[in-house]
């Protein structure tokens, strides 16, 4: 974040997922075992391809949220394990289809599944993982949880189509962008948190508080993801810088820079993102324009605001180590930009 | 069917879906209304693309089966409507992804969705329809039905990946082919029938009888579909002849012709289907080789056998107009080849 307005937090106080992982580490091991078990199939291409993406790193942030929220709700049984695995499978299925749609060559620093096995296999194995997620949530045996996850799945798919509809359209405004983010990313975060309150049998107010926490956390997470795509730190995350630019994706940094730009700059964004007529040096020019208009700062300010809202959403819950860890997750989602 | 061993049935006695459609026509109208309602979305691309495929014809065979089996089971409530719509949405989502995987240009005689809107939109709208199917079945409120449909979805996706794994492999045997057919096609037929017995609260024996009926009917249906791909009647169905050949798909007619062929013929199948090195006149040669070895006859004999097994599976049910209509469906699935 070369142009950050606030100094990066002291390395010693940087928020991490460590506390969260320590608190629910045993549960996460069970989730990981279940994930490996349910990826199995006599059709060898399935565990090969699914294993590549499931094992290929990833923070397991969404299942961690399900596990931690279950703990926060005082849940002591076992249904959250299958649900956390189910949430991760939904996420993984989405990644596989996203990579096909985005024609991505890399995913978490590794060759993407569509590069290695082709688009066809990625589409079908994505379908398989989505079906498996569905089986896992049925096993958890709660119709209310099923309703939440079914609706979340529809909203996610709708958000993906919406994103496709506005792709390469530089007239896209902040509202349309945020609607996509709320649908395609935040809704799964929200569901991942909320279902824990449901299996724990907590009152609706707590369900809704966790839903809000997940929603705002998810928006913050995606905003930062979109900033990172234009950030030099990106390479450390194993992604190439400027993927979104090359695809002509309209994200908040672009929306801000475009809105604040003059006629020549607007023409630049149209040429590069709408017409996808990109030349040597265009990515550098995009970064210069974003710096001039403090577009990444602006996007980060939005992200911080959502992270703060996520923290506030946890107010109904009494202080505890797991609540502290969930508060830290909100900071982590923003500060991982540094 | 130029080389049929049995004469085509008299036109006057040809089996149709008419009786079935007449018996459950009112229910089907409700299903169609629900389908249109649930395709709706503020994201205009969704109803556009989904409407194209859902409205684009199709016999609604799978939802008809759910409705008819509910009637057969004496069910008098309304949950079968949402379930029938759900089954059709699963089927439609599969078609959208199939067309992407097969790179099909036509579907039921119309330009396929991927041709009109691109692969990306087809993948994502397929995901949306699958999510919608999931919402509909949750509304029906039976965990047992959800379990059946979730498992069916996994098996279908597994069958699709299996089909991809053996595509272009002329060493594929009848067993592997039938396993694909049972998974990718027959399992949804089976689930479509079985869930009606579940919502009707019928004993497990009836559930299993309907599952068997659906399985065998589905296998017969797919076998005939694969024969039709090499049949002149195909054009009447709005499909191009030889699609499977051009894609190098290994279906029963190919397996039979290849197994009965000499060295030169085996080399022909390898060149055309494995290497996809296809020249002018190759499709005609394929048809000649199939005629020589009576490969389409053999596949049709298999289909008749499965259709008869489907008929037998209904023996536990007392005679009734709806049972007669379901028996006729089995004949229809085979005789539509003529």
Strand and helix layout:
Two copies of one chain form a homodimer.
Chain A: H1 18-23, H2 25-39, H3 45-55, H4 61-72, H5 79-102, E1 106-107, E2 110-111, H6 113-140, H7 143-166, H8 174-199, H9 204-228, H10 243-247, H11 252-260, H12 263-274, H13 282-292, H14 295-313, H15 321-335
Antiparallel strand pairs in A: 1-2
Helix pairs in contact in A: 2-5, 3-6, 4-5, 4-8, 4-15, 5-6, 5-8, 6-7, 7-8, 8-9, 9-14, 9-15, 11-13, 11-14, 14-15
Summarize the structure in words:
The structure is a homodimer. Chain A is an all-alpha fold. Chain A folds into 2 domains: about 20-140, Farnesyl Diphosphate Synthase (Orthogonal Bundle); about 140-320, Orthogonal Bundle (Farnesyl Diphosphate Synthase). Helices cover about 70% and strands about 0% of the residues of chain A. Chain A contains 15 helices and 2 strands. Chain A has helices at about 20-25, 25-40, 45-55, 60-70, 80-100, 115-140, 145-165, 175-200, 205-230, 245, 250-260, 265-275, 280-290, 295-315, 320-335, and strands spanning about 105, 110. In chain A, strands 1-2 form a two-stranded antiparallel sheet. In chain A, a hairpin with a 2-residue loop joins strand 1 (about 105) and strand 2. In chain A, helix 2 (about 25-40) packs across helix 5, helix 5 runs antiparallel to helix 8 (about 175-200) and helix 9 packs parallel to helix 15. The longest helix of chain A is centred in the middle third of the chain and has 28 residues, at about 115-140. The radius of gyration of chain A is 20 Å and the shape is globular. The model of chain A is unreliable at about 1-10 (pLDDT under 50). The interface of A and B includes residues 97, 100, 120, 131 and 161 of A.
């Amino acid at each position: 974040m070369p142009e950050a307005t606030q100094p990066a937090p002291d390395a010693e106080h940087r928020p991490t997922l460590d506390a969260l992982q320590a608190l629910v580490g045993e549960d996460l091991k069970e989730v990981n075992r279940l994930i490996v078990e349910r990826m199995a199939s006599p059709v060898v291409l399935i565990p090969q391809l699914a294993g590549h993406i499931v094992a290929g790193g990833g923070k397991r942030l969404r299942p961690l949220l399900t596990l931690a929220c279950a703990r926060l709700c005082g849940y002591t049984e076992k249904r959250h394990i299958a649900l956390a695995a189910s949430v991760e499978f939904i996420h993984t299925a989405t990644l596989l289809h996203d990579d096909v749609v985005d024609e991505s060559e890399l995913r978490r620093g590794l060759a993407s599944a569509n590069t290695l096995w082709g688009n066809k296999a990625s589409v079908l194995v994505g379908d398989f993982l989505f079906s498996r997620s569905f089986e896992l949530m049925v096993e958890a045996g709660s119709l209310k949880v099923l309703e939440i996850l079914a609706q979340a799945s529809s909203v996610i798919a709708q958000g993906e189509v919406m994103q496709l509809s506005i792709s390469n359209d530089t007239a896209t405004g902040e509202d349309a962008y945020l609607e996509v983010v709320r649908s395609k990313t935040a809704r799964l975060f929200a569901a991942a948190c909320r279902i824990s309150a449901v299996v724990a049998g907590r009152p609706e107010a707590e369900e809704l508080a966790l839903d809000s926490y997940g929603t705002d956390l998810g928006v913050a997470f995606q905003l930062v993801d979109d900033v990172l795509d234009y950030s030099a730190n990106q390479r450390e995350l194993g992604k190439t810088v400027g993927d979104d630019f090359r695809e002509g994706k309209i994200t908040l940094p672009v929306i801000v820079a475009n809105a604040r730009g003059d006629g020549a700059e607007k023409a630049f964004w149209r040429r590069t993102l709408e017409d996808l007529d990109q030349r040597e040096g265009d990515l550098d020019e995009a970064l210069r324009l974003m710096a001039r208009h403090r577009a990444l700062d602006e996007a980060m300010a939005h992200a911080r605001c959502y992270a703060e809202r996520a923290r506030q959403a946890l107010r109904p819950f009494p202080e505890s180590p797991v609540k502290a860890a969930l508060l830290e997750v909100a900071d982590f989602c923003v500060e991982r930009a540094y």
